[in-house]
Amino acid sequence: MAGLEANLIEAEFIPSKLLIGTDILKSLKYKTFRSPITDDLLVAYPRICPDVAIIHVQRCDEYGNCQINGINAIDLLLAKSSRRVIVTTEKILPTEDFMSVPSSTNLPSTFVDTVIESPLGAHPTSCFPHYTYDLWHLLHYMEISKKGKTENYIKQHITDLVSFEDYLNLVKDDVKRVTVREP
Amino acid sequence: MKLRKFTSDEIMITCMSREIRNGDIAIQGLTTPMAIISYYLAKATHAPQTTIMQLAGNILTYEKAPPQISLLFNEFEAMRRAVHIGTQTEVYEVIFKRLESIVEFFRPAQIDMFGNTNNSLIGSDISKLRLPGGFGIADVAALYPKTLYYCPRHEKRVFVENVDHIGGLGFRENGESHQRREIHIISELGVFEIEHESRRMKLSTIHPGIKIENIKENTGFEILTPEKNQQTSPPTELELHLIREKIDPLNIRRLEYLSGKTREDALLNILDKELSLTI
To answer: The CATH number of B8-277 is which of 3.30.70.141, 3.40.1080.10, 3.40.50.10490, 3.40.50.150?
Structure first.
């Protein structure tokens, strides 16, 4: 996160005391240095600048004004610090719909490059309030991975398919299970 | 006195809940059922003003009755009860601002006698067995005035002399900084702390029905014991009622004790029950 935040202020790195003393820092091989102000030991968290971020949202307009009304975790930080941002969305709505609730637009179009309407686009993870995450599908994936056949899963679910519709067709029974029915 | 029957997960949850003071901010992870249950229990009993903050930054709330935990719907429940939808950055902002009030229970794969923990790898070859990783533990463990760990399985492979990889920083043998912080460990056998003077793990209270030999036999290092053993106070009727009937009637907490095929079967069983109840 510090690496992404460095981007937001055009910094080469962010200095912090976090992780000092842990083996995690050793495996990351980040450099440490003495603070020019207090002489304390600091870690230089280098800037991370992703080329592309793909973010799935509940709703946006055709310009990419997004209202993420579920858990957004590091979505906003990712979108703001990546060179290009592709938004996939459960639904594209008319811009007028957003004018009455502008404060709910937490990711504005100024950070977004591309918008693709793709309902169920977060499967097998969740998208509140439309569907929960698909634990059965994830267990199935785990089973395949344990046997060392992850490549088979990738082939069947990604590389052999032409469109996202093909994917949905493949997992349609799974999806039915986790979709929240409208009351 | 009438003896109440309870299981080790129930006394653990009670002990965890009692670490929370009224007004604390409890950080709720994603897949730690016993931690979540203990927060809800505290809020429903002695600490009604506990703020519950999800790792993703959301603050959820409820009045009176605590929510029922779920495998599929924890996120949905949290969203429905959210008073604020935040970001992960904000979780760190709150942690750094309110260090004294933060309660966050971590479950380590390994913990050593100095309170160092590991959730990254077993052995030295990461390609052989890689664990989920420490996530926030490494960032914050050494900052908290009180770092909290829970270990449902008190075994030699969990309580090790030296962890294979330090993620959560406890104390080094030779000391250095972090003078005044506390580390508490709650296991199925007792409650432990890292003693200030020796910087080594010491038994605080032993759970009812457990013998000191049980602890020694299942710990991979020499554990310090007090001169006179104190017993952990058992769960009350109310605490047991809330855990069993209100917060976790599907017994999701038991998953923390299971592994392999047994765990997967139990998991699928709970999922089926959840599906028949909701959606």
So the answer is: 3.40.1080.10
Strand partners, A13: A46
CB contact under 8 A, A69 and B85: yes
What would the two tokens of residue A71 be?
């858990």
**Amino acid letter, residue B189:** L
> How far is the C-alpha of B219 from the C-alpha of B156, rounded, in Å?
5
B221-278 residue pLDDT tens: 999 999 998 999 999 999 999 999 999 999 999 999 999 899 999 999 999 998 887 6
Nearest chain A Cα distance for residue B178, angstroms: 11
**Could B87 and A73 be called an inter-chain contact, meaning their C-beta atoms sit closer than 8 Å?**
yes
Query: What tens digit of pLDDT does each residue of B224-235 get?
Result: 999 998 999 999
Out of B55, B58, B120, closest to residue A24 by CB: B120
Q: Which chain B residues are Cβ-neighbours of A70 within 8 angstroms? A: 75, 79
